[in-house]
Specification:
The complex is a heterodimer of chains A (322) and B (134). With 322 residues, chain A is an alpha/beta fold. Chain A has a single domain, classed as Purple Acid Phosphatase, chain A, domain 2, CATH 3.60.21. Chain A is 20% helix and 17% strand. Chain A is built from seven helices and eleven strands. In chain A, helix 3 packs parallel to helix 4. The longest helix of chain A has 14 residues. The radius of gyration of chain A is 18 Å and the shape is globular. Chain B folds into two domains: 30 residues, no CATH class; 78 residues, Immunoglobulin-like (Sandwich). In chain B, strands 4-3-6-8 form a four-stranded mixed sheet, with no helix packed on it. The longest helix of chain B has 11 residues. The chains are: A alpha/beta (322), B mainly beta (134). At the A-B interface, strand 8 of A face helix 1, strand 1, strand 2 and strand 9 of B.
Chain lengths: 322, 134
């Protein structure tokens, strides 16, 4: 892409609002400021080109549910493989991958092993947090044995990459009857300490399974003590909060905080309140790959806002998005 | 979906807001929106199998039915999960705890003492119920 066109696309001072929604809502981007994306007309390839000027690029995948075999998707390993192929096919490789939980459906060792084997095809670092499906029965022992190295408590951890500070939080254990997701006192204390040493100009990326903002409490789509966690991040100029769990793209910006949920690689779930329950949603076979996908993220440079591009496995027009 | 359909769907749910914030040495703009996914009507519906009063509790659409089961001392209550998502049945006071129940799997517990036994699904804690034993 010509330099001139790139400049046009990334004109961050343009107060450009572009929110496009195609078909079943799988691809949309917004641009202007904290959340810097691309107009829909600028293709995925354009998104890659715009970020190519430098900075950090990474991918979020979520809710692989390895082991699920119900009518909503009888081959979740195949759709995870399709997501991996999508990542590999991109002209610019991400530095690493975040998996925001529900790696498996039933926390079975064989399910974890399949997940790990498929993701190993990427030859990229993968950072995980567990979903509630990963901590069934054994309080997350199978998960922690495989993915918990170097983590604290139920699997929370942080690391620095490309000038940004990444924090993986766990909000799926010790849930109370009648409540929502929960971080718990011990993890909150750890978080407060973890960010204390950081300059306020450090971009923060928080990733956790259940949304850290209240999406729809009637379906449990929120976290009881997320406000406490976010209060520790108030002083930072750029905070991105990446979640899964709800198997659909949703995004919100509140002040300096961008909240985002990613598509699942396994099956879609209904929009809040549009069905009797949040259970797996069966769509026509030719629509499935249009409502499953991943999210590409980039920071063009430190002090630049995060750019998020949600990428379905197949674009809504039916052709491959690559 | 047609273009008209897309626009309608978009407008129906669009919420846009602009906030400009000039920080230290950088100009930011904030685009805020809440998007509620996609128009859906084809949700998965569970079987509407009636539960025999007191002894059978079904899990359907992320809820226990009946939410309150009243039984006599000595009754065995059986829970059956009809969802495509696994659930469990955990006593709030840890009197009983089922293994995770995948689709159509069951769990039974016999109530040998009178009392009110509250329980929930520890995976989806909004799901609550109780067994009243007399």
């Amino acid at each position: 892409m010509a330099k001139y066109e790139e400049d046009k696309l990334v004109d961050r001072r343009g107060f450009l609002h572009c929110m496009a929604w195609v078909g079943t809502g799988a691809v949309w981007t917004m641009s202007g400021g904290v959340l810097k994306g691309l107009p829909l007309g600028a293709t995925e390839r354009g998104a890659m080109a715009h970020a190519a000027g430098g900075g950090l690029r990474f991918v979020q995948i979520s809710d692989s549910h390895i082991g699920f075999d119900k009518p909503a998707n009888t081959d979740v390993t195949a759709t995870l493989r399709a997501a991996i192929a999508k990542i590999k096919a991109a002209p610019e490789q991400p530095a690493f991958v975040l998996h925001t939980g529900d790696l498996t459906h039933l926390s079975k060792p064989a399910e974890f092993d399949t997940l790990r084997q498929v993701l190993s095809e990427l030859s990229l670092p993968v950072f995980y947090v567990p979903g509630e499906h990963d901590v069934i029965e054994d309080d997350g022992k199978s998960y922690l044995e495989r993915f918990g190295k170097g983590t604290q408590g139920a699997g929370w951890h942080s690391f620095d990459q490309g000038g940004a500070h990444f924090i993986g939080l766990v909000n799926v254990v010790n849930l109370k009857a009648g409540g929502l997701g929960s971080l718990g006192k011990e993890q909150l204390e750890w978080l407060e300490k973890d960010v204390k040493r950081l300059k306020s100009s450090t971009p923060i990326v928080v990733f956790a399974h259940i949304p850290l903002w209240t999406v729809y409490p009637e379906w449990g789509w929120g976290t009881d003590d997320s406000a406490q966690a976010l209060s520790y991040l108030k002083r930072f100029g750029s905070v991105s909060v990446l979640n899964g769990h709800i198997h659909q793209v949703m995004q919100k910006v509140e002040g300096h905080i961008t909240f985002h949920t990613a598509m699942s690689t396994a099956f879609p779930q209904p929009a809040p309140g549009t069905a009797p329950s949040p259970g797996p949603m069966k769509v026509e076979a030719d629509r499935l790959k249009k409502v499953l996908g991943l999210s590409r993220m980039s920071f063009q440079a430190v002090n630049h806002p995060i750019a998020i591009t949600d990428v379905p496995l197949e674009d809504p027009a039916g052709a491959s998005a690559d | 979906m047609t273009t008209i359909g897309e626009e309608r769907a978009c407008h129906r749910r669009r919420f846009l807001q602009c906030v400009a914030w000039v920080g230290t040495g950088a100009m930011w703009s904030v685009a805020a929106s809440v998007l509620y996914g996609r128009p859906l009507t084809d949700a998965t519906l569970g079987d509407k199998e009636a539960a025999a009063a007191g002894t059978q509790v079904v899990v359907d659409n992320f809820s226990f039915a009946p939410a309150t089961a009243s039984v006599a001392v000595g009754t065995t209550v059986t829970w059956t999960n009809h969802d495509d998502i696994p659930h469990n049945v955990v006593s709030t006071e840890r009197v009983f705890k089922s293994p995770v129940l995948d689709t159509d799997e069951t769990f039974s517990h016999t109530f040998d003492a009178a009392g009110t036994f509250k329980y929930y699904c520890s995976l989806h804690p909004r799901m609550t119920g109780q067994v009243v034993v007399r």
